[in-house]
């Protein structure tokens, strides 16, 4: 989403241009240190742990090892969902986002390709270096989920699933490799971090403080839209009869709500880390309270869902809770765009929403 | 799909035939009218016709936000399309007496916000999405039969956006933006890693593919969306980068009459300044300069086509519209209307024709 700035007083609390620049530079640095680096660190650790679990499973297949690998996958989903919305800089480069999770996959390309590779015992999917060069659809979390939880996955506990296990192990290794690159790039003070902090007229990505503030703000707004438009609304459908639960993220592994929870927790924590809400003038601080109140609402609603994803989207009472969650996520987006944005001088303009 | 050599054989003639300057280009450029989708102060949507000095001449209501307006100057017909993924278009007339006709998109299709009339004004073409199969379509409407949809062509790509008639009047140029969207997912982009934008030429008699042109694979994330075509058949294309480093690759391109895409300007600092995003392009009536807008950065830049130098660079406000009448400025419509990025100009000759037609 593109956002533009409506008024020159775009950060109402800062008095001079250099104050504003310093404030934004500090906010960006704080969001990197306080949120981005720790969360990419966690994703790196979770991906390594998944690789180790897959290694054990493939070298000594057993029910225990399969259960451990599946549990590790769930933790990996949690860690992923806390960085999934940071789609700028390293995660946006080299198709990393799509390589890590090619989703939504409305026309089932990933499933078809993964099933074809299994059916033909394609040797090129069993080694990390060769899988990294294959279609983005077969080298990330979606493929790994199908291999660990899809039809025939129980066979992983037995010797005869050698090819499937090696495929999963290769994907796990690829995810860990990409996670390591992401972590290294965010930890490198001279790379994208410098691009973000050292904004200025010579900087091709961020020419001024305003563009950095807009990037942080848009990350939250777009992340909320991702929850509403992609994770909730398509699976809910307009009415109960139109529910399409298989459009839910990670339904095969039953991790749908963990993924949404991770997004919402992550978005709130990131927003706090950016200090954007602290920049609101005194008389507008109630919007910050409303936002925290809505995030708490969302969290409570999700925690109250005890049904598996495939049933939850189609049947009450869980469906009712998910419909309410959609309203909360949309209203968070509207609060950010309609209230917080304009107060900070950042407004989604009539002519400028992306791609027209 | 044709290679460049086949393209020269099949479409080259069209380009060559178009080289003779059109009479319209030589006409006096003043006294132009403009049509655009608008947002009113009360947050309702409409489409408006206004004069060069910002005087409102006519406006109609729209059920939702509009985008571009296709105009047929000789008959005075206009069609405003819903912004993607909208499902309505409204046909209206420059005179205030003909009632607007609301068109609904066909089952399984939505509009992309752009369209074009055939030269004789009897057919309307609209860029559309067959969303379940993610295939671009060009819907064809019979103007005199109340805009009945009579056929469709394949756009030979995903996400067709702006379409325009080539000067031979027999070829339709389609900018396939390459981005897959589905109304169930609102405006989310579903295929950024695999998108393949293209510029396509269609034979309007048959729907046949006359040529298809793509950028090098390293630039596959530059969505080719908007076009301006000179009276001698030169094609200028404005892209919108979906890459992480938006300023890296050129977004202004030219399709030469040899069927080759080349950067119109390849200036890193220019790319960065406009944020890798071109919103709308228009040629001046004398065809010597090209103006383009970059709404996210607020720039409106005019290039000399002879030197490719920037002759004017304005920072306009976010509600600025691209008008073309020698100079360009934010519309002075008062405080009651905000004008869409796209703005269609009626040639003064068109108005004369239109008046004659009415009489």
Report on this model:
The complex is a heterodimer of chains A (356) and B (359). Chain A is mostly helical. Helices cover 62% and strands 1% of the residues of chain A. Chain A has helices at residues 17-59, 63-81, 96-100, 109-119, 128-131, 141-149, 162-187, 192-197, 209-236, 256-274, 285-303, 309-312, 318-344, and strands at 4-5, 346-347. In chain A, helix 1 (17-59) runs antiparallel to helix 2 and helix 1 packs across helix 9 (209-236). Chain B has helices at residues 4-17, 23-26, 268-273, 348-358; strands at 33-40, 45-51, 56-62, 66-72, 77-82, 88-93, 101-104, 109-117, 123-130, 135-142, 148-154, 160-165, 171-176, 198-203, 209-213, 222-229, 235-241, 252-255, 261-263, 280-283, 289-294, 299-304, 310-315, 337-339, 344-346. Chain B is globular and about 50 Å long. The A-B interface holds A 2, 4-6, 88-89, 92-93, 95, 97-99, 102, 104, 106-107, 136, 203-205, 207, 225-226, 229-230, 233-234, 247, 347, 349-356 and B 39, 67, 83-84, 113, 134, 177, 179, 182, 184-190, 192-194, 223, 225, 240, 243-248, 268, 271-273, 277, 279, 295-296, 298, 318-321, 338-341.
Oligomer: heterodimer
Radius of gyration of chain B over all CA atoms, rounded: 19 Å
Strand content of chain B: 35-45%
Helix content of chain A: 55-70%
The computed structural class of chain A is mainly alpha
Spatial order of the strands forming the largest sheet of chain A:
1-2
Biggest β-sheet of chain A, characterized? 2 strands, antiparallel
What is the string of helix and strand elements of chain A?
EHHHHHHHHHHHHHE
* Major β-sheet annotation of chain B: 5 strands, antiparallel
Count of DSSP-assigned helices of chain B = 4
Shape of chain A: globular
Shape of chain B: globular
Find the count of extended strands of chain A (DSSP E, 2+ residues).
2
Which residues of chain B sit in consecutive blocks of at least 5 with pLDDT less than 50?
1-30, 318-335, 348-359
- Number of distinct beta strands of chain B: 25
Residue share in β-strands of chain A: under 5%
Termini Cα gap of chain A? 11 Å
What's the total helix number of chain A?
13
């Amino acid at each position: 989403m593109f956002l533009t700035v409506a008024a020159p007083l775009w950060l109402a609390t800062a008095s001079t241009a250099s104050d504003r620049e310093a404030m934004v530079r500090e906010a960006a640095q704080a969001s990197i240190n306080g949120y981005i680096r720790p969360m990419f660190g966690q994703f790196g650790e979770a991906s390594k742990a998944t690789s180790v679990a897959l290694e054990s499973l493939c070298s000594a297949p057993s029910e225990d090892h399969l259960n451990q690998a599946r549990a590790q996958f769930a933790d990996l989903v949690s860690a992923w969902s806390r960085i999934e919305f940071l789609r700028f800089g390293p995660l946006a480069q080299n198709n990393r986002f799509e390589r890590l999770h090619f989703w939504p996959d409305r026309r089932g390309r990933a499933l078809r390709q993964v099933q074809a590779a299994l059916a033909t015992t394609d040797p090129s999917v069993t080694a990390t270096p060769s899988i990294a060069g294959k279609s983005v659809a077969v080298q990330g979390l979606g493929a790994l989920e199908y291999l660990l939880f899809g039809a025939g996955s129980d066979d992983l506990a037995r010797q005869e699933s050698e090819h499937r296990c090696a495929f999963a192990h290769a994907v796990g290794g690829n995810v860990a490799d990409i996670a390591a690159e992401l972590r290294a790039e965010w930890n490198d003070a001279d790379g994208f971090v410098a691009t973000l902090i050292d904004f200025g007229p010579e900087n091709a990505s961020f020419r001024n403080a305003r563009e950095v503030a807009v990037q942080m703000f848009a990350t939250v707004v777009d992340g909320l839209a991702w929850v509403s438009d992609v994770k909730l609304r398509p699976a809910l459908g307009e009415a109960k009869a139109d529910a399409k639960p298989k459009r839910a993220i990670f339904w095969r592994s039953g991790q749908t709500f963990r993924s949404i929870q991770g997004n919402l927790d992550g978005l709130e924590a990131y927003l706090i880390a950016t200090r954007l809400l602290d920049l609101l003038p005194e008389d507008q601080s109630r919007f910050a309270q409303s936002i925290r109140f809505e995030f708490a609402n969302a969290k409570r609603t999700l925690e109250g869902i005890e049904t598996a994803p495939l049933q939850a989207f189609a049947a009450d009472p869980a469906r009712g809770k998910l419909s309410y969650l959609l309203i909360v996520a949309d209203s968070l987006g509207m609060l950010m765009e309609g209230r917080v944005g304009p107060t900070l001088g950042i407004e989604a303009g009539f002519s400028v929403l992306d791609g027209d | 799909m044709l290679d460049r050599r086949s393209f020269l054989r099949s479409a080259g003639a069209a380009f060559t035939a178009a080289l003779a300057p059109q009479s319209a280009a030589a006409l006096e450029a003043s006294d132009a009218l403009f049509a655009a989708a608008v947002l009113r102060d009360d947050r309702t949507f409409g489409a408006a016709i206004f004069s060069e000095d910002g005087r409102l001449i006519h406006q109609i209501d729209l059920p939702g936000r509009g985008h571009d307006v296709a105009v047929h100057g000789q008959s005075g017909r206009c069609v405003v399309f819903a912004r993607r993924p909208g499902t309505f278009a409204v046909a209206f007339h420059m005179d205030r007496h003909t009632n607007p006709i609301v068109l609904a998109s066909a089952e399984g299709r939505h509009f992309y916000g752009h369209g074009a009339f055939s030269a004789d004004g009897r057919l309307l073409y609209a860029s559309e999405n067959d969303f379940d199969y993610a295939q671009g379509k060009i819907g064809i409407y019979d103007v005199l039969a109340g805009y009945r949809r009579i056929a469709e062509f394949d756009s030979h790509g995903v996400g067709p956006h702006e379409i325009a008639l080539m000067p031979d009047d027999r070829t339709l140029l389609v900018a396939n933006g390459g981005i897959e969207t589905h109304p169930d997912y609102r405006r989310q982009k579903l295929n950024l890693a695999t998108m393949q934008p293209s510029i396509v030429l269609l034979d309007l008699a048959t729907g046949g593919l006359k040529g298809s042109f793509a950028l090098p694979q390293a630039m596959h994330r530059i969505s080719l969306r908007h076009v301006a075509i000179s009276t001698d058949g030169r094609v200028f294309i404005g892209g919108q980068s979906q890459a992480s480093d938006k300023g890296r690759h050129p977004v202004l391109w030219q399709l030469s009459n040899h069927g080759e895409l080349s950067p119109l300007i390849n200036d890193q600092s220019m790319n960065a300044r406009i944020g890798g995003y071109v919103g709308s392009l228009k040629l001046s009536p004398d065809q010597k300069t090209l103006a383009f807008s970059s709404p996210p950065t607020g720039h409106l830049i005019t290039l000399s086509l002879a030197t490719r130098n920037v002759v004017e660079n304005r920072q306009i406000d976010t509600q600025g519209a691209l008008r073309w009448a020698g100079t360009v400025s934010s519309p002075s419509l008062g405080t009651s209307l905000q004008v869409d990025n796209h703005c269609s100009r009626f040639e003064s000759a068109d108005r004369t024709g239109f008046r004659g037609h009415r009489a």
